[in-house]
Design a protein that fits this description.
The protein has 489 residues and is an alpha/beta fold. The protein has helices at residues 52-67, 69-72, 75-91, 93-104, 108-128, 164-177, 192-203, 218-227, 240-251, 275-287, 307-320, 339-355, 386-389, 405-412, 428-437, 470-476; strands at 14-16, 18-20, 23-25, 32-37, 42-48, 143-151, 154-158, 181-185, 211-213, 233-237, 256-260, 266-269, 299-303, 358-361, 376-379, 396-402, 420-424, 442-445, 464-465, 478-486.
Length: 489
């Protein structure tokens, strides 16, 4: 691993206000919070700290837009404005990439891979805006009976810090296509690109109040969204702990909720697989975005016959990853998003050692500036160990041996998570058996990690419930209404 290069510095500290009703406003409390550059630990910007009063103002603004211009607009015109929104994002993509890299620590090369998915999501749902159909359902000869789908209403969108742009758009785009209005609370660690998206939406002609952005903390701004009686729907991506809190809060006013939570995904490698390809993909599956991915292949299950080969190859790839300045296009892995997250990951590495697993690569902080942890590989991991059961959300791979299909299935399904899984095999019959038996919302065969907005995404148990993407997202943001017209005899 090469030494860390000099980092880009900023000459001034920007102050960022809330975006409510098409205007940049200070928080009602007058408070600001700091957002730091994870690569340096230095202050990047000061952001207005939204609270309950600001959420209330944003909800009222969203309700007014829903009942006003946006709610009265033709679906085709909504779709046209969404296409203009996509063009505005495309025109500002270099700015967005740099801003997200500075704010999250993610390498610019990785964010350049995210931007096409952001744009694809927005264009896909723009094309769906005037194709949200009901159906005629014949019930009896003296009636015309049919269904229509109407916007669910004001949507509270709570976005995580690991993919602020991409996951944000996964929620924003279908909500807009369905005619909803939005109060978006970005993660307090990474609020900057969300505010810029709100500005670009206004620039594209989307009416004021349709997309409101209120940065703040979960215990205040996030809780205010959940508690607000005029928020009709909450969609959240984040930790199971917070997901449970949201579900309990939403029960008080019976608002609809979609939760995409944690993962401890199994990536299963059999001897008849392409071991080189499987090892490369296994390393990428856990080290991409510094392991801060809900579907990261953090458990690599390897048949005993090829276990040593895979351990050696994954460890070699871990040692070859170049840590460095996220703004450098040659950087392979950036820092973790915060000091808190870095300490959490280092604590889990210590736990893994104490449980008897063997560190074969990494296992420590890298450097003293920023929040870097070396890509870490544990061998000799047992399924019941904490590093095998609990979501670490960092660049830590646990490689677990198995001896036959049944043991592999038992280990893979032996956690509280069920978001994703991968299977590497040359046996088509085994591939089909595993896709059927694995408890996961997505199963990859002879690959790991690709997603597409056209395919459903989500899990069950501690991975949450509901599905995002594709047609299923339309159900998340609409209510079905039955219409019965008496036509006489």
């Amino acid at each position: 691993m090469s030494s860390l290069p000099a980092f880009t510095t900023i000459d001034r500290i920007d102050h960022h206000e809330l975006l409510i009703g098409g205007k940049r406003l200070p928080a009602a409390s007058g408070r600001y919070f700091d957002t730091l550059n994870p690569a340096t630990g230095q202050l990047l910007a000061r952001v207005a700290e939204g609270g309950a009063a600001d959420i209330d103002l944003a909800v009222r603004s969203a309700r007014a837009a829903l009942e006003g211009e946006w709610g009265q607009m033709r679906a085709a015109d909504r779709g046209a404005l969404m296409l203009k929104f996509a063009e505005a994002i495309r025109g500002a993509q270099d700015e967005l990439i740099e801003l997200e890299s500075l704010d999250s620590g993610k390498p610019v090369a990785a964010i350049r891979q995210d931007l096409p998915a952001v744009l694809d999501t927005l264009v896909y749902y723009a094309g769906m805006a005037d194709r949200i159909n009901g159906q005629v359902i014949p019930t009896r000869p003296d009636a015309l009976t049919y269904t229509v789908r109407e916007p669910v209403g004001v949507v509270g969108v709570i976005v995580p810090w690991n993919f602020p742009l991409m996951i944000g758009m996964w929620k924003i785009a279908p909500a807009l296509a369905c005619g909803c209005t939005i109060v978006l609370k970005p993660a307090e660690i990474t609020p900057l690109t969300a505010l810029r998206l709100g500005e670009l939406a206004l620039q594209a002609g989307i009416p004021a109040g349709v997309l409101n952005v209120v940065p703040g903390f979960g215990r205040t701004a996030g809780q205010a969204i959940v508690d607000h009686p005029d928020v009709d729907k909450v969609t959240f991506t984040g930790s199971p702990t917070v997901g449970r809190q949201i579900l309990r809060g939403a029960a008080g006013n019976l608002k609809r909720v979609t939760l995409e939570l944690g993962g401890k995904s199994a990536n299963i490698i059999f001897p008849d697989a392409d071991i080189d390809a499987a090892s490369r993909a296994a390393a990428a599956g856990i080290f991409f975005n510094s392991g801060q991915v809900c579907s990261a292949g953090s458990r690599i299950l390897v048949h005993a016959d090829v276990y040593d080969q895979v351990v050696e190859r994954v460890a070699a790839r871990a040692r070859s990853i170049r840590l460095g300045d996220p703004l450098d296009a040659t950087t392979g892995m950036g820092p973790l998003v915060s000091e808190v997250q870095m300490k959490r990951v280092l604590d889990y590495i210590a736990i893994g050692r104490s449980e008897g697993a063997t560190v074969v690569a990494g296992g420590a902080r890298s450097g003293t500036q920023g929040y870097y942890v070396s890509p870490t590989v544990f061998a000799n991991v047992e399924p019941q160990m904490r590093i095998s059961q609990e979501e670490i959300f960092g660049p830590v791979a646990a490689i677990i041996p198995f001896r036959d299909d049944e043991e592999a299935i038992g280990i893979a399904n032996g956690t509280v998570y069920s978001l994703a899984a991968g299977v590497w095999t040359g046996d088509i019959g085994r591939a089909h058996r595993f896709t059927r038996r694995l408890k996961a919302g997505t199963v990859w065969v002879n690959t790991f990690g690709p997603t597409d907005i056209r395919l459903p995404w989500g899990g069950s148990r501690d991975s949450g419930f509901g599905r995002e993407h594709g047609d299923m997202a339309i159900e998340n943001f609409t209510e079905a209404k039955a219409v019965w017209i008496n036509t006489g005899r």
